[in-house]
Amino acid sequence: MAQSKTLTVLVGSKNPVKVNAAKLVIQGYFPDYQVQCSGLHAPSGVPEQPLGEDETRLGAQNRVSYLQQHHQADFYCAMEGGAHQFSYGPATFAYVVIANDQYTSVNRSSNLPLPQAIYDALVAGEELGPVMDRVFNTTNIKQKGGAIGLLTNHVATRESTYTQALTLAMAPFLHPHLYMQQAIQDEV
């Protein structure tokens, strides 16, 4: 029997939605490997409910950096959900970071428009998951379909949004010569 190749993936969260999204994406790109994906606590260094793109991105980057400093893996992933009051209205989104020993890729999900009253609750210090649980009379929605599932009648989910952002973030790992070439051109 042939020995199977294994990839280890660490996710900076124990949330099953985030772990499942990372495993699905990595397994899709490496079908000949057995993917061992684990969620671990990794501090974000930002508030429980990040507001603004910079704070949200920093949370994901901090989680990946923590994993890299304390653990060994083939890939490190983190997803951080945030919200922002854009000129066209409030929205929630996520930043994702994937890294290995050579590259770090940062990407952002699409926006989900939020009702103003829900965004105002976030500004007042609440976290999106509990606010959505209260508004929709659900329990622990952040470990299920999330606000995305509730507000799209489950046509999209929190996991599907993470999956798309992670899928696109994999580009530098699939074509490193192209991304390395750009870095070399930038230095000239």
What proportion of the residues form beta strands (DSSP E)? 15-25%
Q: How many distinct domains?
A: 1
Span between termini? 50 Å
Structural class, judged by helices and strands?
alpha/beta
Q: Report the CATH topology name.
A: Maf protein
Mean pLDDT: 93
Helix-strand sequence: EHEHEEEEHHHHHH
- Which CATH first-tier class would you pick? Alpha Beta
**Number of distinct beta strands:** 6
Helix share, percent: 40-55%
* Radius of gyration, CA atoms, in whole angstroms: 17 Å
List segments where confidence is low: pLDDT < 50 over at least 5 consecutive residues.
none
The CATH architecture term is Alpha-Beta Complex
Biggest sheet overview: 6 strands, mixed
> Count the helices. How many?
8
Principal-axes geometry comes out as globular
Provide the fold topology.
Layout (H helix, E strand, L loop, with lengths): L4 E7 L4 H14 L3 E7 L13 H18 L4 E12 L2 E11 L4 E5 L3 E2 L2 H8 L4 H9 L9 H6 L6 H12 L1 H4 L1 H12 L1
Parallel strand pairs: 1-2, 1-3
Antiparallel strand pairs: 3-4, 4-5, 4-6
Helix pairs in contact: 1-6
